[in-house]
Amino acid sequence: MSVIRDHFEKEIPQVSFKDVSFSWPGKKENVISKCNFAIEKTGLWMIVGENGSGKSTFLKLINGIIKPNNGKVNSLAKVGMVFQNPDHQILMPNCRSELLIHISQEISKKAIVCKIENVLDKVGLPGFETRPVHTLSGGQKQRLTIACALISDKNFILLDEPTALLDPTSQLKVVKTIKKLTIDKETPLTALWITHRYEELIYADAVAEMKNGNLSEWQQPSKFQYN
Ligand SMILES: Nc1ncnc2c1ncn2[C@@H]1O[C@H](COP(=O)(O)OP(=O)(O)OP(=O)(O)O)[C@@H](O)[C@H]1O
Ligand SMILES: [Mg+2]
Predict the structure, then answer these.
(1) What is the model's pLDDT at position 225?
(2) Is the CB of 51 under 6 A from ligand 1?
(3) How confident is the model over 9-55, as pLDDT tens digits?
(4) Fewest beta carbons less than 10 Å away: which of 28, 54, 86, 99?
């Protein structure tokens, strides 16, 4: 029984903080201060908070770019990242070559073709294999960066204001793409999404606010908006 449970728990991309504090070098004040939080289920989790409240720093602690001064970051997840500006992230000239550099394991050519087709379908870019990246819209580029995370088998995607540079139509497509991936029946994803756009909160399973170096309790999006 416990073997089954252990296996099941490993399949869930859990991330948690225990009393995590962090200050940037040369600065006395903690940006993140005795912060505790946990995500133990798949779904779309959103974070809001004022400019400079530490949201991006928080994501960097989760994906291990920076280490806490105190406390512990626990992660069983394969963490991927989507930034605000896809041009800072995409390296290759077309969709296929960009996806190829994110495949880490040795697999056959046939399996590669299949995987590329599959992830492009999942992000709503079917048939885009040979499309030059410079011909993609901002929203299509963001969905390509999501496909890159999928093809490298990430199961926990951090998105730092992924729609900030997009028009309303592209914004909607990106948030709906992520939402769909988080409720996928076979391999549901966990997504942690930072936003200043409150109209996006209706897609969240839970919302929290970053304030004074701490993350609030997870709350229902509806409750959160009217607080
Ligand atoms: N690389 C860095 N070196 C030094 N200080 C930094 C660095 N990155 C961020 N900071 C500082 O840490 C604090 C929190 O910044 P952070 O970028 O995490 O906030 P944020 O909530 O993401 O803000 P925004 O909504 O504007 O993106 C700010 O005071 C910022 O100046
Ligand atoms: Mg930020």
Answers:
(1) 66
(2) yes
(3) 545 678 999 999 999 999 999 999 999 999 999 999 999 999 999 99
(4) 28
Based on its alpha-carbon atoms, the radius of gyration of the chain, rounded to whole angstroms, reads 18
Residue 16: closest CA among 55, 70, 71, 65: 71
Q: Which one-letter DSSP state was computed for residue 94?
A: B
- Note the helical H segments in 63-159: 95-100, 109-122, 138-151
Cα(41)–Cα(183) distance, integer angstroms: 11
Task: List Cβ neighbours of 225 (8 Å cut-off, separation of 6 or more).
Answer: 198, 201
| Spatial CA neighbour of 17 closest among 74, 86, 67 | 74
Q: How far apart are the first and last CA of the chain?
A: 43
194 within 8 A of 160, measured Cβ to Cβ: yes
Q: How far is the CA of 54 from the centre of ligand 2 (A)?
A: 7
Q: How many Å lie between the centroid of ligand 2 and the Cα of residue 156?
A: 18
CA distance linking residue 194 with residue 196, whole number of Å:
7
- The domains found in the chain, sorted by start residue, are 12-89+153-226 (3.40.50.300)
Contact 24 CB / ligand 1 (< 6 Å): yes
